[in-house]
Amino acid sequence: QVQLVQSGAEVKKPGASVKVSCKASGYTFTSYGISWVRQAPGQGLEWMGWISAYNGNTNYAQKLQGRVTMTTDTSTSTAYMELRSLRSDDTAVYYCARVDDYCSSTSCYLSAFDIWGQGTMVTVSS
Amino acid sequence: QSALTQPASVSGSPGQSITISCTGTSSDVGGYNYVSWYQQHPGKAPKLMIYEVSNRPSGVSNRFSGSKSGNTASLTISGLQAEDEADYYCSSYTSSSSVVFGGGTKLTVL
Predict the structure, then answer these.
(1) A9-52 pLDDT, tens digit each
(2) Which of A34, A61, A97, A109 might form a disulfide with A79, Cβ 3.0–4.6 angstroms?
(3) Contact criterion met (CB below 8 Å) for B79 and B63
(4) A111 vs B99: CB contact, 8 Å cut-off?
């Protein structure tokens, strides 16, 4: 079946980096994009960015620009999200989600997040 | 990009219908038909319920329906059931080529 399986929980100190993986199965990895969405404890969903699994193009949320990098490894159908210079307010559950991305010559339009990973808890604490 | 505006909570009795609104701007909800709705139960990952304003993924009950008028999208749940009690989030593609979520609505089935 179509699924995304994420890596396990992480505990990091402020200023450190974290890299979360998201392994896809059950579909052609390069036919969809991957977005990352996080949810702080008791809070709503926050979109972090998108990567095209087809060509590696990315678009990051403005507030995370410079601290986040999204990559893919098409040989293993795995997406990665690295967040640097961690702060306490980065404590959250991080989700990867498959996204229908429709690309023209000038833009990529992101539709719905139809398949979600199970989530990875990242705790930032001294 | 500001979050889309949703009511913090709605409630209804079993069998009734409820509607959750999601208000944005002409740069997101009003400008594109890439509006989605997600259901999230406590401790679980979100689940796609409606995509591209009014389309239901395979397996989602036809009690769930979506619509849009101007800068406001809506999710209607008819024939409320106990298992519909959850948090609901809307999202929209934006003119910045990003995605913005609503703040979420807690649905209580009385």
Answers:
(1) 999 999 999 999 999 999 999 999 999 999 999 999 999 999 99
(2) A34
(3) yes
(4) no
